[in-house]
Design goal:
6 strands, 152 residues, alpha+beta, elongated, six-stranded antiparallel beta sheet
Length: 152
């Protein structure tokens, strides 16, 4: 397990970067099957091309979910984050195509203690970034973040 980032370690301005992932047609098909969202821009190349894309594109919410999945692969919040309080300022900047290689850039934005001992609220800004540096999807994620457990 990666070293955890507890409330005390959460340093606004710090940036974490994930490994890359290549998007596949199977990813899009499985997301459509899981969610039931089968809009033809995601399922039909001809429709997507007629809509101005070069072919099928991934669902926007799939790209947002990838931000969370790539963050989980970092492993540094497995024990310290206890809940998601929501996403703000979510934007879909560019289409995500099968074959695209993306990674996560996660900026630690701000934190504050709460009235409940042992946890605070923190905001992280996740950006899904293409291999060419294009920002695909971004959003601010507000989380409950635990303080480091007492030693001994």
């Amino acid at each position: 397990m990666a070293e955890q980032i507890w409330f005390e370690d959460f340093t606004p301005g710090a940036v974490l970067t994930s490994s890359a992932r290549v998007i596949t047609f199977d990813d899009i098909d499985r997301w459509a099957a899981l969610t039931g969202e089968r809009h033809p821009v995601h399922m039909d190349d001809d429709f997507a091309r007629a809509a101005g894309f070069r072919g099928r594109i991934a669902h926007g919410l799939f790209s947002l979910a990838l931000i969370e999945g790539l963050k989980a692969e970092l492993g540094c919040f497995e024990q310290s984050v206890t809940a998601s309080l929501g996403w703000d300022n979510v934007r879909f900047h560019a289409p995500l195509y099968p074959g695209d290689r993306v990674h996560l850039r996660l900026e630690l934005v701000e934190k504050r203690p709460t009235s409940k001992p042992g946890r605070g609220v923190a905001t992280e800004r996740g950006v899904l970034v293409g291999a060419d540096g294009t920002e695909v999807t971004s959003g601010d994620h507000v989380i409950f973040l635990r303080y480091r457990p007492n030693a001994g």
